[in-house]
Amino acid sequence: MPRIDLRSPLITGLSLSLLLRADEPWVYAAAGFIGISSKFLLRVDGKHLWNPAGLAIVVLLFGTNHVWISPGQWGASIWFAALLAFLAILVLQAARRADISLFFLGAHAALLFGPALWLSDPLAIPIHQLESGSLLLFAFFMISDPRTTPDSRLGRFLLALTVGLSAHWLAFFMQMRPASCRCDPRSTSP
Questions:
Q1: Which of 69, 87, 113 is the last residue of a domain?
Q2: Which domain holds residue 44?
Q3: Do residues 136 and 64 both lie within one domain?
Q4: Is 98 exposed, middle or buried (0-12, 13-18, 19+ CB in 10 A)?
Q5: Is the sign of the CA dihedral 137, 138, 142, 143 positive or negative?
Q6: pLDDT digits (tens), the chain, 190 positions
Q7: Where are the alpha helices (DSSP H) in 20-149?
Q8: Looking at 69, 90, 117, which one is the last position of a domain?
Q9: How many Cα atoms sit within 13 Å of 174 on the Cβ side?
Q10: Cα dihedral sign for 109, 12, 54, 182?
Q11: Does the pTM of the predicted model rise above 0.90?
């Protein structure tokens, strides 16, 4: 009988508790079920097809009106960024996946700074967009998951670029802002 390692579902639960916001309690249970079951059902050669917590969040974002993520909840203070950077160094060194985090952040930064420079916008705008605690959590702890990322460096680069382009397209072309209000359209208040 295989030994059950509880660290994996605990990490998924922690990721969900840090990033997911919902207005109904059943949504958290559904997120846990989707994330943890995907660890066992959606695999190829022992690797996850998607980050389990990320998959659960995306499925619920598209499937319900009860879910949102709130990048502003972490603020933009230097102590939090320093704490995340310290923890990220520990995690990425153990996982040997610092390259995908740097690829993703580089692609995301290029997609933010490119239009700002082209349009002569103040650089404070893309800098502020890069200060999101949720972005740093995703970049250092979720996209770098060794069970989700390709084994080759080129594969990790392509994955990071694809995720960065997809996020940019959803946010800026589809106007899917992460902290959008999921209000009941029948309600008179926002």
A1: 69
A2: 1-69
A3: no
A4: middle
A5: negative
A6: 566 667 777 778 878 887 888 888 899 999 999 988 887 887 777 777 777 888 898 899 888 888 877 666 666 566 766 777 777 777 777 767 778 888 888 898 999 898 889 989 898 888 887 777 777 777 777 776 777 777 788 988 898 888 888 878 877 776 655 544 444 444 344 4
A7: 25-41, 52-63, 78-95, 98-118, 124-130, 133-137
A8: 69
A9: 11
A10: negative
A11: no
Assign residue 20 a region (left: φ > 0; alpha: ψ between -120 and 50; beta: otherwise). beta
**164 and 90 share one domain:** yes
* Amino acid identity, position 87: L
DSSP structure string for 59-96 = HHHHH-SSEEE-GGGG---HHHHHHHHHHHHHHHHHHT
